[in-house]
Amino acid sequence: MSLAPHRIFRLLVVVWVGSLLTIGYAAAPTLFATLDRVAAGAVAARLFRIEAMIGVLCGILALALGNVLVRRGSLAYRPLRGLLAGMLICVLVGYFALQPFMEAMRTAALEAGVDLAHSAFAARFGMLHGISSLIYLIESLLGVVLVWKLPVDTLGGASSPT
User: Which three-class secondary structure state does DSSP give residue 112?
Assistant: First the structure.
């Protein structure tokens, strides 16, 4: 069997997990450490939107490719599909279910001429942000486990080096 599908799978996973860790744990904290909260929040929201799109694209493609590889006999990919599905669920819930509510609160506060932290939405936004952060952490941990479990011997389908 060609190595190309295995390499493409690995590339999709490391792009997704690498961007997830970089944006969530390096870029966003740096923004809040260097910019005012409103500007940092606006830029972070855009970065997390990009991250969500990367997650959905890489997740769907890697899940489909993982299914193909399992059907072709590469059984080492079987448990990875569950991790991918878990990560994809985290993206869909965290970004596409919670984020619209958070964005609506941010917009309403700006339209009222107040900082979100000093608005009537502050407590609810804080709760949703906490839930969203927890989901992002779970997605990140699943991603680290996924990278750790990537098959080493792709020709034999084993998980040990040759």
Answer: coil
